[in-house]
Each structure stands twice: as structure tokens, then as C-alpha cells.
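Async update (no meeting this week)

Hi team, since we skipped the sync, here's where things stand on the single-chain job. The sequence we agreed to prioritize is pasted below, unchanged from the tracker. I ran it this morning and attached the output directly underneath so nobody has to dig for it. Comments welcome in thread, and please keep replies under the output.
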Amino acid sequence: MSVTWYECKVKYRKTVESGEQKVVTESYLLDAISYTEAEARINEEMSAYVSEEFKITNIKVANFSEIHPVENTDRWFKSKVALIAFDEESGKERKSNIYILVQGNDLKEAFDNTNAAMTGTTGDYTIPAIAESPILDVFPYFSDEVENETASEQSSTSINNEVTVVEEIIENNLEEEVVE
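Output:
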């Protein structure tokens, strides 16, 4: 299933390093089904971080194909990746661009993390551009805890279904032996 990412700009009063209050507008990224859900989710997420009033100034669909968080990094970078395909009809190479959001502490690390994200890609690609993104944080729909719970629930359900099938096979074999 394809994920739609929304970039949300939030304006609020923040205490800066010097100790003074300053009004800032910051960008956050989250996945949602619609603009309405994106607005509800950013309200929920920001309520946990901002104690005062805040205003959502903009919500737009972001053009990211993939998001790759990396531990122990603090900045997000937008990587432009050109996928290279050979067009047999025209005999020319064709490039199609995708954008990936990766984390890194600097540009070189973002480049390395983009290459790591592209490992396993069967086709050729180049990375023509990487730029630091204004996005401060990403809020995926499911946290790791929810995904792990869901995976273990699915695994448990799968195991229960397999046990039920095995029990039915044993019962059918016993019934066939009794009939014979």
C-alpha cells in the first residue's frame, strides 16, 4: 500500500537558546489518508510538544517515495535519486526521479545513507542532488511498538490458524481410519 506523506507547517511561540520567546514556523512530516486526517494528527502530535497555542499554517502533499530514519542523527535531507532505465524502442537511457528523505548528521552521511537505502535495487541509479530539508521531525502513522504488537498478533493468529488446520487433518485421518 502506498503511503501519502503530508508536510505540515506549524507556527508557535518557542523559547530559543538565549532564553527569549520567539514565534517560529517549523515543518513536520506525517503520513495520513487525507488532509483532514493530517490536520487531526498534527494537532495531536504538536499538543504533546507545545504547551501554548499553535497554528497550522500550511498542509501539502510531500513528494517523498520513501523515508529512511537513522539512529543517532538529528537532521533530515532530501535526496533526489535518478533511476536509470534503458528504453529498447528508442535505444536511449531514460531517467525517472524519485525523492527520498534520509537522516544524517551532515551531507556526506546523508549521501551514504541514501546509498544504503538504495541497496538491493536491481536497476542503476545516480544521486544528482542532496539538500538539507527544513523538516524537523517525522511522525509515521504506526510507531515501532504498534508495528511490533501488530506483527506479533498476526504471527500469533497465523500460528493458531496453522494449529487448527493440523488438528482438522488429524481428525479427518482418524475418521477415515474408523470408517475403513
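Quick observations from my side:
Helices lie at 35-49, 107-117, 144-179.
The beta strands are 5-15, 21-31, 54-62, 64-68, 75-87, 92-104, 124-132, 135-139.
Reply here if anything looks off.
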